[in-house]
Amino acid sequence: xxxxxxxxxxxxxxxxxxxxxxxxxxxxxxxxxxxxxxxxxxxxxxxxxxxxxxxxxxxxxxxxxxxxxxxxxxxxxxxxxxxxxxxxxxxxxxxxxxxxxxxxxxxxxxxxxxxxxxxxxxxxxxxxxxxxxxxxxxxxxxxxxxxxxxxxxxxxxxxxxxxxxxxxxxxxxxxxxxxxxxxxxxxxxxxxxxxxxxx
Length: 199
Ligand SMILES: [Zn+2]
What we know:
Blueprint: E1 8-13, E2 16-22, H1 24-28, E3 35-40, E4 43-48, H2 58-66, E5 69-72, E6 81-84, H3 95-126, E7 131-137, E8 145-151, H4 157-166, E9 175-180, H5 181-198
Helix pairs in contact: 3-5
């Protein structure tokens, strides 16, 4: 007899409560082979079968469930449990380490962008630039875009509108803010220092 698609299996390994459920894709799509996902807190792994759900029994699902083992996160100092299937290698990190790593990666990329801008601003300041004008381009279609104009004197509103229009902005008035390059350099330096401290 084929398995009920609502079947849920649970078991305890040590202190860990594991749960196995049938993935919706193999219930909804007639051509998908049977598939389950096993969870332990935020950890989740998939186990695939080659058979169709109509040819799968609870015992088959139990066997797939039993192929999932509990290990400890590969990161030193982290004792979070992770789930592994037979097909995976043994060096894996837990979901919270994975998201921390992704966050750190993103922060690093942001610092890099700030550093590049800082370098450029310092170089342009040496060339005599004093103002940094940020102009928002509101195009008829698509996302808004920021255009930065560096200048040795304050741009007139008419000039700013000319830049905005030239870049495809459709608003009647320019959407902009002006900052001295010195102030902007200071704020960039502060932002980089803060990000480095957090990293
Ligand atoms: Zn971890």
